[in-house]
Design a protein that fits this description.
Strand content: under 5%
Order of helices and strands: HHHHEEHHHHHH
CATH class of the largest domain: Mainly Alpha
Number of helices: 10
Oligomer: single chain
Radius of gyration: 18 Å
Structural class: mainly alpha
CATH superfamily of the largest domain: Winged helix-like DNA-binding domain superfamily/Winged helix DNA-binding domain
Shape: globular
Strand order of the largest sheet: 1-2
Number of strands: 2
CATH architecture of the largest domain: Orthogonal Bundle
Distance between the termini: 26 Å
Length: 218
């Protein structure tokens, strides 16, 4: 029923779920993975490019306009960039700063020249904690004071074999969502959910959904 373990690559794609390697930067890599789980693919693409541009995990930078991000990411749609920026703003991963000409940004930052500051993963999590926002997964609701769910998040992040999408599917299972509901939330087909779920089962060494949930919550 399930593909053999040898058929599934053990290496996670760093572009989709950048956990990094063990070493002096492992803590930063884990925090980056937690933050990445909260972003849509386009949001994460912007966020990652902004971090690279400021050249450091604990630095912040100014001057990220929507048009500059189009050049950095290669995304040609300005409306797509703007929607992703609004998503990053709502998740406290970035913040709007003064316009390049010194005037305060208005109208949701859509006017020409609106600029944004990016925060490191550690700063993002601190900003979320200050606001009582403890969910790190894209599309998953608030789970404040739910230590079991927090434990599941940590176990998913600690499994360095998972892709970012597989991690999202696993956490949706913990919420009790059906394959169809997961597909609707993540905007993928139900068949795609089943594909990711098969890989999740293999990487956690389980054969069914109930076992996966138990493994993540216990």
């Amino acid at each position: 029923m399930f593909p053999h373990k040898s058929q599934v690559s053990a290496a996670a794609d760093p572009k989709t779920y950048p956990l990094g390697e063990k070493g002096e930067h492992s803590d930063h890599a884990q925090l980056l993975a937690l933050v990445a789980l909260s972003h849509s693919p386009v949001e994460q693409r912007l966020y990652a490019e902004m971090l690279v541009a400021v050249d450091g995990a604990d630095k912040t930078g100014e001057g990220f306009t929507a048009r500059r991000l189009m050049l950095l990411t290669g995304i040609r749609s300005l409306s797509t960039i703007r929607r992703a920026l609004e998503g990053l703003l709502s998740k406290w991963s970035i913040e709007r700063v003064e316009k390049m000409d010194g005037a305060s940004g208005k109208n949701g930052g859509r006017e020409p020249g609106a600029s944004y500051r990016v925060f490191s993963p550690a700063q993002v999590i601190a900003r979320r904690n200050e606001r009582g926002y403890s969910s790190f997964t894209h599309g998953i609701g608030s789970h404040e004071s739910n230590f079991s769910f927090d434990r599941a998040i940590r176990k998913v992040v600690d499994n360095r074999n998972l892709s970012r999408r597989e991690a999202q599917v696993a956490l949706c299972c913990v919420e009790g969502l059906t394959n169809a509901e997961i597909g609707n939330r993540l905007q993928v087909t139900e068949q795609t959910v089943k594909f990711h779920l098969r890989h999740v089962f293999i990487k956690f060494g389980v054969r069914r959904r109930a076992e996966l949930i138990s493994r993540l919550l216990m």
